[in-house]
Amino acid sequence: MIKRAAAKIFAIIFVITLITPEVFAAGIKLIYRCSEPHGYGYDGVPYTLDISVDGTTAYILLYSDIRPFIVLDVSDPHNIKKIGEYRKEKDAIWQSKPGPIKSEGVWQVGDMGIGDFEGKKLAFITTTRGIQVLDCTDPYNMFSMGTNPDYAGMKLEGLAMVEVRSPYIFISNSGGFRIFKYSTSAATRGKAPFELIADVNPQYSTQFIVEFEFSRDKRYLYAAGFFGLDAYNITNINKPARIFRYENINFPYKAGNKGTRLKRSKKKLFLGTARDLRIFDISDPAIPKPFKDDNDKDVIYPTLGPVLDIAIHGKYAFLFYGPIENEQTKPQDLGLEIVDISDPRLPKFADAFSLGPATRYHYNERQKMALVPKSGVAILGSDTFYILDVKDYINEKN
Question: Quick check: 230 and 207 in contact, CB under 8 A?
Fold first, then answer.
């Protein structure tokens, strides 16, 4: 009897040992959750708006009334060090003044782009009151380079997307985008540092842009929007020309899908949507071609949730997933999904890690993620920011 019971226990343990790697992800670990208060954002709850990484330095934009911008050293993910912060009270441009703000309502911060300009590392932050420019060359002594309050005559919302490719800045609005050239030397001489280079479809409001990407040779710009993917020839930066549009993003099982994120890796382009991941071949950068399955249909990988951000490393796609504003009928998880993309015609689930049910403060397409390959971690920003150990997928030879 005892032997029979022992045999059953052994059999159960053996079966669990076999199925556990498939059912419960073992290759991702939560190693840090920031619990430090950042001030208070909308409705008293701060959250992360954007994350940019340079080596092992992370630049984090927060929706905070006190310190909207912090810099972290993540070289040792088990010993995170804050090496800089920018506090609003240091600069009147950032401060909310008492009294009504006409029809503007609450002042909002939208997106961030970081780049090197004439020997300086600058952060360009879109807000409802203009583009705020921070010099973060020295994280211990960051300061404002000033603001462009009206975007050269174009009134932008705080959710405007910004992408930096020095010396140019690409900013979305009203279905189109504008290209500016920025000069730090002009700013130091007291002249206007922003020069409007091109204005593309400013009134075309049906394709709200949520992400920019560029071809390897920088001659083509890709713009992901709610209704698909556009490609522009920017060889002549003064006259960008749209040359391609992909609108077939209807999810096979339900209509109403929309684009959310875009990422390029070598000759592949990855488009995240509210329900799936699409992969394009950009061997010819002028014509993104969807990879086809064995039935000659566009490859569509159903994701665990709406794709909030994408990072690519080696043969894996890292997908930050979670709810999108105004599209939830019940609570949904926020987390990280890893997809094996070694064969773009047959993407496969590799691993996932749930951060638990998302609160309504997570309902935001602007949540961001960044990989830190040198440290083997992924940083996910939501109501706060999390650091996940993903070195099993970053250090793997692929």
Answer: yes
SS3 content of the chain, % helix, strand, coil (to 5): 10, 45, 45
In this predicted model, what pLDDT tens digit does every residue of 41-59 receive, in sequence order? 433 345 777 899 999 999 9
This prediction has a pTM of 0.83
Q: Which of 208, 154, 145 is CA-nearest to residue 178?
A: 154
Q: Considering all CA atoms of the chain, what is the largest pairwise distance in Å, rounded to the nearest integer?
A: 90
57-62 sheet: strands from edge to edge: 48-54, 57-62, 69-73, 81-86
SS3 state at 108: coil
- Answer CATH for 32-394 from 2.60.40.1180, 3.30.1640.10, 2.130.10.10, 3.30.930.10: 2.130.10.10
> What values do phi and psi take at 6, rounded to 5?
-65, -40
Check the CA dihedral 34-36-41-42 and report its sign: positive
pLDDT in tens, 334-367: 899 999 999 999 999 999 999 887 765 544 556 7
User: Taking a C-beta distance cutoff of 8 angstroms, is the pair 378, 52 a contact?
Assistant: no
Measured CA to CA in angstroms, residue 18 lies from 13, 42, 196, 349 at distances of: 9, 46, 60, 18
